[in-house]
Hints:
Number of helices: 3
Structural class: mainly alpha
Distance between the termini: 166 Å
Number of strands: 0
Largest sheet: none
Order of helices and strands: HHH
Amino acid sequence: MEFFNPHLYDAANPELWVAVGLIAFFVIVVASGALKMVGGALDAKAAKIQGDLDEAARLRAEAEALLAQIRQEKADAEAQAAEMLKAAEADARRMEEESKAKLEESLARRQALAERRIAQAEAQAAAEVKAAAADLAAQHAQAILTARTASQSSDPLLDAAISQLGTRLN
Length: 170
């Protein structure tokens, strides 16, 4: 038990003066309010840290809300793009069907026009053949009648009929 050692309380003992200085330091620190200042500084630091943590939590919540909003907008944009793609495909199919119908209609008109032209050409060719046959028949008839009438005497009525025969057959 060295604490009750009489040599310890001797004024020449440096350990006594260290203990007295330490006790005096603690008394001055307590009396001057340094503990309150240190506690206040620590409380202010803790409050600042808590404010920073609250701000970080608020920013995190805002970031999560913004992320959720962006994800929702992305999903909406993807849905809209899918709808636009479906609409474009439907438009393309409709346009394809319309062009097929227009092409078929155009081909039918062209075929009908070609058939009409062919029919006109056939009718014209038939008319030309008939006219050529009539001319040929008239020439032969005129030649035959001329040969028969040359052997016979001339009849003015017969001559008039023969001359009109070529114009009436055309």
